[in-house]
């Protein structure tokens, strides 16, 4: 996590296509305000996940990356996580360890008969 508390953007649901540019502008403004390089997007109120939600989150992430940051999802339901995985988008979820960081106390074991890779 960042040293500062990250900015939070609550995404209301459902979001129409007309609202997407404004939400992208909000992410950009939050990152440019100097409150850190991460914007937490609270997705709990978006409603049932669909491709419109996937499109919104992809655009928000692209906007954040272009501004030198990223977004982190808060309160994502399992169906949204599954849909994002299905379309190949990976987001950092609040409360989960990042993939490149091993969980504390977890060690990978090797079976003695395994061939070297």
From TrEMBL:
Name of the protein in its database record: STAS domain-containing protein
Q: Which organism is it from?
A: Streptomyces rameus
From which domain of life does this come?
Answer: Bacteria
Q: Which residues form the STAS domain?
A: 8-113
User: Which Pfam families does this chain map to?
Assistant: STAS_2
The record's section on InterPro entries has: MlaB-like_STAS, STAS_dom, STAS_dom_sf
